[in-house]
């Protein structure tokens, strides 16, 4: 379809390929961008003592330069976020957009948590239960996703700047899905959810879903109550209140480190007019207002 569009054989194509607009050979075309439901994030193993410290997780969130990753890996076809709710949703609260890149704050958080490079090897360490522990972990991702692989390499380099040693390991999606996730045998995984359009997050973060969708085994009574409330209320006001609480929890407790939502592209010939306010769920929502004119 993209080839046909570039050759002038068709006037419109919808695609989630991230380089769609960069390999556009038509100079008489317009690129319309919209947010998808693909939420990329870092899943952290709660049984790892490193990630039981909220200060470490917050430091990581500040140290990961997501805008650089989006620019260099996704060619600006993604949008940073700190919660698993896209900014295009009426439930999204922009006051919970917190973790812009701030390497000094990241270093300060780690210092406050007692991490220091006492042996000068470039990796922070501290005593945990009477044992010296390096701030180091293995980051897994699937080897068939070039974008995720490159993003993982960039994350490792960015975290190294604040003294966190990250080893990137690539596995097949089958091994990740069928062996690693069920066993819980991992430190961190760079992966994604294709989220529900109703933004019901219970499948991934409710304690009742441990053993199925909630593979990080996150269990928090406060979040459980908020997720249940968000799914059961009847008024918009109550729903907004519940989702504000959910977003507050995600930015304060960091069950996962949110990275970005991928974007999609609608490519249209310039003679197609009237396209506006498109979203993933309804690309052609106002097609009755479209018209052709040279």
List the helices and strands and how they pair.
Layout: H1 2-6, E1 12-15, E2 29-44, H2 54-63, H3 66-72, E3 78-80, H4 103-112, E4 125-128, E5 131-134, E6 136-142, H5 146-160, E7 165-171, H6 173-183, E8 188-194, H7 202-205, H8 221-232, H9 236-253, E9 256-269, E10 272-273, E11 291-292
Helix pairs in contact: 2-4, 8-9
Summarize the structure.
With 294 residues, the chain is of the alpha+beta class. It has helices spanning 2-6, 54-63, 66-72, 103-112, 146-160, 173-183, 202-205, 221-232, 236-253, and strands at 12-15, 29-44, 78-80, 125-128, 131-134, 136-142, 165-171, 188-194, 256-269, 272-273, 291-292.
If you compute it from the alpha carbons, what radius of gyration comes out, rounded to the nearest whole angstrom? 21 Å
- Distance between the terminal alpha carbons, to the nearest Å? 22 Å
Helix content: 25-40%
* Class inferred from helices and paired strands: alpha+beta
Number of helices: 9
Strand content: 15-25%
Query: Secondary-structure element sequence?
Result: HEEHHEHEEEHEHEHHHEEE
Low-confidence stretches: none
Quaternary structure of the protein: single chain
Instruction: Give the averaged pLDDT, no decimals.
Output: 92
Largest sheet: 7 strands, mixed
Q: What overall form do the CA principal axes indicate?
A: globular
Task: Work out the number of β strands.
Answer: 11
Structure write-up:
Helix 5 links the parallel strand 6 (136-142) and strand 7. The model has no long low-confidence stretch (mean pLDDT 92). The chain is 31% helix and 24% strand. It has helices at 2-6, 54-63, 66-72, 103-112, 146-160, 173-183, 202-205, 221-232, 236-253; strands spanning 12-15, 29-44, 78-80, 125-128, 131-134, 136-142, 165-171, 188-194, 256-269, 272-273, 291-292. Helix 2 (54-63) runs antiparallel to helix 4 and helix 8 runs antiparallel to helix 9. It contains 9 helices and 11 strands. The strands form 3 sheets. Strands 1, 2, 3, 6, 7, 8 and 9 form a 7-stranded mixed β-sheet that branches. The two termini are 22 Å apart. The radius of gyration is 21 Å and the shape is globular. With 294 residues, it is of the alpha+beta class.
